[in-house]
Amino acid sequence: MKQVKTNMAGTVSKVLVRTGDQVRAGQDVIVLESMKMEVPIAADAAGKVAEVKVKAGDFVNDGDVLLIVE
Amino acid sequence: MRKVLIANRGEIARRIIRTCRAMGIATVAVYSEADRNLPFVREADEAVEIGPPPVPHSYLNVEAILAAAREKGADAIHPGYGLLSENEAFARRVLDERLIFIGPSPEVIGKMGDKLTARRIMEQAGVPVVPGTAEAVSEADEAAERAAQIGYPIMLKASAGGGGIGMQICRDEAELRQAFQTARNRAKAYFGSDAMYMEKYVERPRHIEVQIAADRHGKVIHLLERECSIQRRHQKVVEESPSPFLDDAARQRLFQAAVKAAEAVGYTGVGTVEFIVDSQKNFYFLEMNTRLQVEHPVTEEMTGIDLVALQLEIADGKPLSLRQQDVRPLRHAVELRIYAEDPVTFLPSPGTITLYQPPCMEGVRIDDGVETGAQVTPFYDPMIAKLIASGATRGEALQRAREALRAYLITGIKTNIPFLQKVLEDEKFLQGDYTTWFVQERAAKPER
Q: Which of A37, A41, A58 is the mutation pick for testing B, counting most B CBs within 10 A?
C-alpha cells in the first residue's frame, strides 16, 4: 500500500487515472494547478490504483494524500 | 481624476498607490478573502473585499469590481498588469459606467490581444513580423502543410494566449502532429478559443522591448528599450536597460518600429512593443502589451520618469509634457523578479513568510507585496517582489544587485534568490552575451 502525496498546495486540475488502473512508477497520475502553473504529480511506485482521494476542483495542501496504490 | 480604484493586488497595487499619493489622488483597493491582510489593502485610502480567493470570483469578477467603484465613488480604474488589464470587455464595461479606464481604448486592446489581427496591422504598417501563418489553423494536416512552407523549427501558439501558456516548439512534422491537438485543447480550456497559429521559431533569439507613451492628442514617444531575454517557462526573470547587445543603429531602428506600431494601431497610454531579435540584429514584432509592464521600474530607474504618473496624466486627457529629447538613459538599471518557487525546479512554493527583510541600499529599489507573516497563497502569480538596482555603469548596477540579493532575507517559503545569484555570477551574463536560451543552457537543471 503506497500513498501518493502532494508536495505543494494547489487545486486539482485533472485526475489522470481511475480506481483499478495499473500505474508505472513515475507515471503522472494527478495534475495540480498552483500559482498559475500546472504541475503533474507522479506515482512513485508501480501498482494498482486502490483509491482516488481527490477530484478535479478540490483544493489540496502540502502533504495531502491524493491516491493510494497497492 | 480624484479617486482611482486599483483592480489588482500585491506589489503593483502598492506601486500605483505610491504615485497616486504623490499626485494627491485618492485610492481604493479591491481584494479577495485570501489577501485581506496584505499591505496593499491597508495602504489604500479605502478597500473593498470583492470575493473568495479564486480569481474568477474576485480579481476577474467584473461586476463586483464595478460595484466597489460605484460604492466608493471612484472616477477611474487602474487595471495594473495581468488579470483584467488586457480584457477588452472589461475596458468597455468601465467606460459604460462613465469611468475612466487607465489604459488604451477597448478597440486597441482587442486588436492587440488577438495575435493574428496584431500581426496583420503591423505587416501593413511596415513593422517586421516573424514569417508565419496569417490565418488561424484548425487541422493538423493544414498545419503540417503550412509549416513545411514556413520551414522548421516552428512555434505553435494559441491566438488568444499569453504568459507562455499554449506555446510549443516543433522541430519536425512528427512533433507538430503530436503537439497540435493537445495544444489546441489546452488553448480552448485556458483561453476559450482554440484558434492556433504558427510562426518560424527564431533560434537563440533575444527578447527586447520598447516602452512607448502616447497621449490623446496624437503625440507618440518611446522611452527606450528593455532587454528581457532571461526567462524561465517563457516568463521573464531578469530585465535590464540599456541592452548590452544592441548598437546605436539597431537601437534607433527598433525605436522607430515601436513608434510606428503604436501609431498604426492608434495607441493611447503607456504600452510596450515586444520584439525578438536574432543574432544578426534583425528584429521582428512579437506582440504589444497594452498596459503597464511588470518590468516598468527598469525604465523608471534608468530615465527618472514615473510611468504610472504618465498613465494617469494621459488617461486624464492631458497632453504629454515630455519631449522625445527629454528621454535619456541616465543610469543602467536591472530588475530581478523574486518568485515564491523552488530555485532549481521552479515549482511553486506557497506558504507563510516567517521573516521578510528586504535590503535597504543606495541605488536599490524594492517593489514588493508581502511582509513578515504574509501568506503566499497558491491562487495567484508566484512573483512576490522585484529588486531593481541601478548605477552609473552596468557593472555598478550588477554589483549593487548582487549585494542586495545577499542581504535579502525571506524565510518560511522557498524563493528563486539562489537562482538569481547564479545568474548574476554567470560569466556569459556578465559579458552581456545571453539569449532567451540562457536559463535552460546555463543556469538550470531540466524541468520535469
A: A37
